[in-house]
Design brief:
Elements (H helix, E strand, L loop, with lengths): L1 H32 L4 H33 L1 H28 L1
Length: about 100
């Protein structure tokens, strides 16, 4: 009985150890080939979706701003502003230049 137990330990332990070692190496190789876990992949996909949504919102904002700036009303507003600025600051500028 003891001889059988010793034989199982002497032969069985290295065989089981070798099988476990081979399985461990195979798992490491698999892990190396798939560096992203499913949880990380889910997080990346979620973040990508959020960034796409934010990008779309920003595109809409830019289009709205382009519409405002390109409209005729915007040209009129800026023309009024520049004429007011010229009326206000041009005499002051001339006075400063004449004083020198």
């Amino acid at each position: 009985m003891q001889a059988l137990l010793v034989l199982l330990i002497v032969i069985g332990l290295p065989v089981i150890g070798g099988l476990l070692l081979a399985a461990y190496y195979r798992w490491l190789r698999h892990k190396e080939r798939t560096p992203i876990s499913p949880q990380q992949l889910y997080q990346i996909e979620k973040e990508l979706q959020e960034l796409r949504s934010e990008n779309q919102q920003l595109r809409q904002r830019v289009q709205n701003l382009e519409t405002i700036v390109a409209s005729v009303d915007w040209d009129q507003v800026t023309a009024k502003r520049s004429s007011v600025l010229e009326e206000t600051y041009l005499p002051v500028k001339k006075q400063i230049l004449n004083d020198d």
